[in-house]
Amino acid sequence: MKRFLGLLALAGLLSCMVLNAQDKSTLSTYRVSPKPGKDSALKKAIAEHAAKYHTGNWKWRVFSVLSGSDEGSYQLNEGPSSWTTLEGRKDISDEHQRDYETNIMPLVEKSTPQEYLLLRREFSTDSVSNTFKKALLRSYYPKPGRGVRLMETFGIWKKVWEKLGSKVTVWSSFFSGEPHWVIAVRLQKGFVDLEQPMGKALADTFDEIAGPGAYARYLDDLGQNVGRIDEEIIELLPELSSK
Fold first, then answer.
1. Alpha carbon of 156 to those of 50, 160, 167: distances in Å?
2. Which of 31, 145, 154, 240 is buried most, with the most CB atoms less than 10 Å from its CB?
3. Structure confidence at residue 16 (pLDDT)
4. Cβ atoms within 10 A of the Cβ of 94, count?
């Protein structure tokens, strides 16, 4: 029976991935870090490049990474789009590529590989189009074969976030390096939203929805299902993003 339930959950996951692939749920994202002394110049180059070449389906939303191992870098989000739209995208023009290589790359110390993330609307409590000032990112890297078990808890978390009024989007990686999930807690007012501590409220609400002791069991299960967790804070930079 447990094996059947696991296969059923996996089938549900694959069905959701196919469904997401058919609508605007695919986000393309990577990060660039400025060379020493080139931060201002890089921001200017990103803003000018976005204004010239990233419009319509290819708009950039640019974020500053405020904490974590990539602190000081800029996250460039393109989309969400659909796989069909991505497939139909015309080759990037020579002028576009030349502008990037001439005006941005010389200012970049490090660039991360591009990754694709799928928006998981069934677990999210906010629309991807809604604006926010800052977001708390928590990336879960499941152990091999344990991703489905981790996914089972997101249904409970959605009910918790809804009850507490938290604005959250949930993403899963798609053939982009080490498999992982990204939970983005959006802060509409920025750090002001953190004035009310949420730790106890989260635990109590989790137990209220899933039963007494459920949150403690969830924490124990994390050690069995998750290899590591990364946490970061990002801030939207409208002045660098596509208009």
1. 38, 6, 15
2. 240
3. 46
4. 8
CATH number of 26-116: 3.30.70.100
Please give the Cα distance from 8 to 196 (Å, whole number): 39
Closest C-alpha to 121, from 237, 27, 2, 222: 27
Q: Is the dihedral of CA 141, 146, 148, 150 positive or negative?
A: negative
- Which stretches does DSSP call E strand in 46-96? 60-65, 74-81
Delimit the domains of the chain by residue range: 26-116, 119-236
* Residue of 179, 196, 178 lying closest to 187 (CA atoms): 196
- What tens digit of pLDDT does each residue of 96-147 get? 999 999 999 999 999 999 999 999 999 999 999 899 999 999 999 999 999 9
The reported pTM is: 0.88
Fold observed for domain 119-236: Alpha-Beta Plaits (3.30.70)
